[in-house]
Amino acid sequence: MQRTTIFHAVTGPALLAVIFLTGLVWPSSSESRSPSPIETEEWSFEELLPSDSVITLTLQEAVMEALEHNLDIQVSRHTRDVRLTDIVFQQSQFDPTVELGGRYDRTVVPLNRPIFGLGGVTRGSIPDTFDQNETNFRLGLKQKLLTGGSYDLTFDTKRNSVAGSTSFLFNPAYASNLLFNLTQPLLRNFGPTINNIQITLAKNAADVEQLTLLNQILSVIAQVEQAYWELVFARENLKVARATLQAAEELLASNRAKVKAGIMADVEALQAQAGVANQIEQILLAQKTVLDQEDQLRVLLSKSEFNLTQTTPLVPLDPPVQHLQETPLKENLEVAFEHRPDMLQAKKNIETSNVNTRFAKNQLLPDLSFQGSLGLSGLGKNPRDDWDRLGSTDFYNMGGGLVFSYPIGNRSAQSQYQRRVLETQQSQVSLLRVRQQIILDVKEAIRQVQTSFKRTRTTQTARQLSERQLNAEQERLNLGLSTTRLVLEFQRDLRIARGRELRAILDYNQSLSRLRLVTASTLDHYHIEIQ
């Protein structure tokens, strides 16, 4: 938006005062008079600059910088990512586990009598030791199932030899076994829905952290908007202070000339000089405010201490919005109900409570489980014979049965179920409370927008009247009908009126930011998508 200046037909020093005091006003169609706009230069900030460089920044650029570098957002992102790892952790309980092992054993023990099976010996050749070698290899696979059951599949094979023995069919002997065990709950803890609950809860927790991240992003963007407009206000307020100083200096020069000409008392020049000193103080305070607001914006956009030590001025480029934006209550409420993070989190809490209640209800059932096993065996003088017998399925073992258990009274499960039911009811009430708060927030934000816009018009009128009062009093001073003190008071009043007009304009823009925050429409406003 092109900035213009507005002035009325006055003469002498009053003309210069009005030009400088009103050169920073954004034009409005509601002004009763038809001013002649002229282009003005931006007020320079050489007193604030350690160098000739500045950093220009649009509001969109400031928001994007904050999304990339703001430390609060980064902390929330890391917390969200930590929650995502919990999902994988819960899913891992259904991962199969492989077991692999091997073992070699040799047993050599002394004997004091013959052992059955050691044939081909005479009394004089009775062995006095027992020497056995055994090599064992084991391979296993086990897994928890989504149905709630678990299985264990084991294959083991071994080689056994006894020194000096001739009574065994095979020496050495090779033996293998393949065994499958299955345990499956039939009532309590049965089914994928129940056994996926921890995964579901982990996903819900990650979703909640995502909503927390979204809420943090919306909050930071609102802070960036607040800091951006406060910097705009501080810079414009400094320009107003400088314009007031310019007018005070011109008044001082005029009074000194009149004192020198003998048509004005010395005290009038002293009063004008005091007015200049007062305005210099206002400029010093305004300069400090500009620097403070620059740092407030830097801390939101930076992730390193180095950036906070920089003194290059930040120059906001976007002019504030001054036209009335439509704020229909119904549409804003619909947007808020659909996008507000606290609303979505309340719904997610209800979902989590329902999951916990469903699990607690399942725990009320008795524990009835099926347990079964099936095994195959093999034996031979070499590995091939052993595996042939194992694969023939002629040698096997099998079995199965049911195991039932139920705690008398089952008070633990009953109390947990009642607790989960109450938590579900509580989360539903919390959702209603959140909806009420959203309605209050949106209505208050809309009223603030409307009130702030009206303030821009009333403060504009007040500023225009202050200009006319200053012009009239300046004319009276030129005619000798007023005093320097009164002119200085009207200059101060005009500075205050201009500051209030600026404050109202920036408050209006901040109220628009607040409305976007309470309706969670900020991201759509800036065309931002969060991954």
Describe this structure in words.
The protein is α+β, with helices and mostly antiparallel strands and 531 residues long. The chain has two domains: 12-85 and 200-350 and 424-525, Outer membrane efflux proteins (OEP) (Up-down Bundle); 97-192 and 367-412, no CATH class. It contains 13 helices and eight strands. The chain has helices at 12-22, 59-69, 71-91, 192-195, 197-261, 266-301, 305-308, 329-339, 341-362, 383-392, 411-478, 484-519, 522-525, and strands at residues 55-57, 97-110, 129-144, 150-162, 173-185, 314-316, 367-380, 396-405. The chain has a six-stranded antiparallel sheet with strand order 2-3-4-5-7-8. Strands 1-6 form a two-stranded parallel ribbon. Strand 3 (129-144) and strand 4 form a beta hairpin. Helix 1 (12-22) packs antiparallel against helix 5 (197-261). The protein is elongated.
SS summary, helix count? 13
Global mean pLDDT: 84
Task: Describe the sheet with the most strands.
Answer: 6 strands, antiparallel
Query: What is the fold-level CATH name, i.e. the topology of the largest domain?
Result: Outer membrane efflux proteins (OEP)
What does the overall shape look like? elongated
Kindly give the count of domains: 2
Counted beta strands:
8
Order of strands, main sheet, comes to 2-3-4-5-7-8
Percentage of β-strand residues: 15-25%
The arrangement of helices and strands along the chain is HEHHEEEEHHHHEHHEHEHHH
Structural class: alpha+beta
- Tell me the name of the CATH homologous superfamily of the largest domain: Outer membrane efflux proteins (OEP)
What CATH architecture of the largest domain do you see?
Up-down Bundle
